[in-house]
Specification:
By secondary structure, the protein is of the alpha+beta class. The protein has one domain: Sandwich (Jelly Rolls), CATH 2.60.120. It has a five-stranded antiparallel sheet with strand order 1-2-8-3-6. Strands 5-4-7 form a three-stranded antiparallel sheet, with no helix packed on it. Strand 9 and strand 10 form a beta hairpin. It is globular. The protein binds fe (ii) ion.
């Protein structure tokens, strides 16, 4: 079997097994931890995701490819190629999200919302940082807020697995440099490249 066929098989298997697990056990933390481990195992297969099959960004610092999807735009697996210096605003996903590294180390900053003395929203504060290296994966719930900072010295490859296709989400929030909550949806996203 060639690399592309083997990759497609592994992607289909992950999507099917994750869908079945979610259907059987629901979307709780144990299920997500289980799926996180499955994604981490796939990310260990760097041989399935060679850079020659996924071009580095020609514009900007990252390029997203769709590897596969379950029914109804759910259980969507993407691959991102990234260049040193890529970073995002803090944002949520409004669906569960698992981020794993195939190649390179990516810093994930994790935040919580703050409220002022009157209980009103008052931006966010950093609570934790996680370095995600090859074979590692982190999981986020729909309301969790993170930003990513790719500070490695050479290009990276990351796998992102979402409960719902990013292109279909319309109510995500981001936080700009001043801490203001802003729209963080398709209109702000670089288009996903076609399936390779
Ligand atoms: Fe994200």
């Amino acid at each position: 079997m060639n690399v592309a066929d083997e990759r497609d098989l592994a992607v289909r298997r992950l999507i099917e097994e994750a869908s079945a697990k979610m259907e059987k056990d629901g979307p709780g933390p144990d299920t997500l931890a289980h799926i996180r481990q499955m994604v981490a195992s796939l990310a260990e297969r760097a041989d399935l995701f060679p850079l020659q099959d996924f071009a580095l960004p020609k514009e900007g610092k990252s390029q997203r490819y769709k590897l596969g999807s379950g029914a109804d735009d759910r259980f969507v697996l993407y691959l991102n190629t990234v260049l040193p210096g890529k970073s995002t605003f803090p944002h949520n996903h409004k669906t569960w999200a698992i981020v794993a590294s195939v190649l390179g180390e990516e810093r994930n900053r994790i935040y919580k919302r703050k409220v002022d003395a009157n209980g009103q929203p008052a931006g966010i504060e950093l609570v934790e940082e996680k370095i995600v290296g090859p074979g590692d994966a982190v999981v986020f719930g729909p309301e969790d807020i993170h930003s990513v900072h790719y500070e490695d010295v050479s290009p990276g490859v990351q796998i992102h697995f979402y409960g719902q296709a990013l292109e279909t989400l319309s109510n995500r929030s981001g936080f700009d440099a001043a801490g203001n909550e802003v729209n963080y949806n398709k209109s702000m996203m670089k288009p996903t490249a076609g399936k390779v």
